[in-house]
Design goal:
The chain is mainly β. Helices cover 15% and strands 58% of the residues. It is built from seven helices and 30 strands. The chain has a 30-stranded mixed beta sheet that branches. Helix 5 packs antiparallel against helix 6. The longest helix is centred in the N-terminal third of the chain and has 36 residues. The radius of gyration is 42 Å and the shape is rod-shaped. The N and C termini lie far apart (140 Å).
Amino acid sequence: MSGKQKLTDKLITWLWYLLAAGILFSAVIISLIRFALTEVESYQETIEQLASKAIKHQVYIESLDARLVGVMPTLVLKGIRVLDSKGEKEILRVNKANIGVSVFQSLKRKKFIPKDILISGTKLAVIRLSNGQVKLRGFNFSTDPNSEVKGNEGLTAWFFTQSSLALKESTVIWKDYKRKQKSVILTDINLELNNTGNSHQLHGSLSPESLGKNVEIALDITGDLQDPSKWKGDFFVQGDEIFLAKWGERVRHSDIELTDGVADFQLWGSLDKNGLSKVYGDISAYQLKIKHTKQEKQLDVGLLGGLFELGYEDDGWHLNVERFQYTGTGGILPETNFSIISKTDKDMQKETYDIRIGQLDLKGVSEVVANSGLLSKSHEAQLKGLAASGKLKALRIASTFDQENNRKLLAHARFNNISTKQYNKFPGVTNVSGSVWLDQNGGKLTLHTQAGSIDFGDLFRTPIKLEKVTGDINWWKYQDGWQVASTELKAENNEVKTLSNVSLYFPGNGPAYMDLYSSFSASAQYKSNYLPVKIMNKPLIKWLDESIVSGVVSHGGAVYRGRLSEFPYRKPNGQFQVQFYTDNLVLDYQKNWPAIRDANFDATFDSKSIKIDLHLARLFSSAITKTRVGIT
């Protein structure tokens, strides 16, 4: 046998001896601990003194036991009573507490060192004071939180400095004096707190029967546990079937209030020196009831949810929402994405909000808002009457406010297949597409519509078909009112083509003024669809309907100049005139008289008369030239 092999055999032999000695030593230590534990009841008074010294309050224990949990000696305390600083009033009662003993640390430091603490069946009050600090109290506490601050400092410090502390089957009352909210009682608390110096981990669950089904929480932070403003780290919260309106004060913004609702959520977030820096997650809220405090009706929401991210920066915050969904009063909205960015400048003089929405279904949004109970009756009737539908895409609204409530606005969007019904003075439209841009001083509407129509109610006999519409409409502030203008606004279908220039002025006081010139060409047989019958006299309407049989209006024009309220200008206070030139017109101008055929003429009419200058036509086999016909 070589020397190397002999050395290996000796090393193995010594290792076995060492292992056996370790096992024997451990058995002796455990036996001694077990022997000591059988006599633990005789140390009850000593343990009460140690506990009183640790939390700086008088502590009494009804019974004391001890056992080994694995290899760790564990004290079992039952019926623990903690008195106030005067030793008169009970401020805390604990049904049971298991306290593990760190044997080696206790021997090394020559004092009792607890390791794992489990508290079962107690009632605690967790209070946030007006200065933001968090303190622990007895379950019954004064309405003035500052009256018990000194009396419970030791209790708070002890709870928040244990290396490992678990709270099981207990009740906690949360009172927030900083936000002046109502108390919230949380039952069936199961939490575990681990502290290593300035580092803290909290995780566990609670089942608040009156507030929801279950809440899971996890917190990994650094900082002073008594001062949340100094926390830094991450957190997670999960809630199942949480009753939103029962957690403290009701959720309210301005005059809109959430009166009922249930939510499931998963939230992740981060804390820094400024507080909450980011939170994101998934929320599904249902059976919501939202009410405007000044309206009788309420909005019933079956489902409201989506994925979100909320972040805070030094100069503001941002909110991103994806897969936003709504089901409730008014129907179901298609899923969409949106974001809100809020910024405040350094001198705190201005606030800016930037809202961006991926896509909006106008029909769904209109029905939801109209039936929400959040509008006045007149606005509700108007929204229902218009019955808008179509899509808004890439919508952006940016608004800036200063301390004097001056507002700047910027908005733009694309729109596809917008349709509305004719309602009161608003014309109805179908399948209108384009884009819009505006601010507080003006804007621009760009149209590129296919297969649309416009309905002016009873002004025309039927809605006017618009196979194609292109052009820009601009508006801006002018003097004390608004100016609206469009150049080269084109509209056409298989019956008529038009090219229009229009300018409208809406003064601050007084009637609106319009200046319109429109050129057109048309097929004469469809003329009845384009007669403004509401503002024309009946004999003229009848004559035009019956007389013009066929032909082509090769070119023509219309002029409208004057105050809208004074139309149709029977007095010399404005101008309304239509002129056109025809080719190959068939004119059945008088009943039981022969029709004029192949007529080429110029026609001029206004609200009072019609004048026709005939250049060439046929009556039977005879030619007619240079003839004038007038009707007044």
